[in-house]
Amino acid sequence: MSSPTMQLQSRSKDVPDQIPQYDAIGMEALAELLRNELIRIHDREDGIDSINKLSARINVSRAYLAKFRDGGMVCMNIMNRIAWAFNIKYMIENYEDQKLTRIE
Asked: FRET label pair with 80: which of 5, 33, 60, 98, CA 20 to 30 Å apart?
């Protein structure tokens, strides 16, 4: 019978394989990655090689996509649609900071 320490070490070797790999972590990193993808959209080889095609695929106005590409912000819903179309995995943590959100 193996010791609890050996069992823990054995299980911990599998942890890196279980952790999802993300292309972006945080809102700023996601926005930057998506903008870079929009700037280089004409180089894509997956059939989404124009703002028009992306717009049609994700049902978002070309004007919103161009505005975002050029530095404007769009809502999280639109960023999520772009990430889905480009197969980008991201993680954004939503939390409450009592110092920042307290209303007195």
From this structure: 98
Cite the beta strand spans of the chain per DSSP E: 24-25, 90-91
- Residue 20 in 3-state DSSP? coil
pLDDT in tens, 34-61: 999 999 999 999 999 999 999 999 999 9
Global pTM? Answer: 0.72
Contact residues for 26 (Cβ-Cβ < 8 A; gap 6+): 91, 92, 93
Rounded Cα distance between 87 and 58, Å, is: 12
Residue 57's DSSP bridge partners are none
φ/ψ region of 95 (left if φ > 0, alpha if ψ in -120 to 50, else beta) reads beta
| Interatomic CA distance for residues 37 and 32, integer angstroms | 9
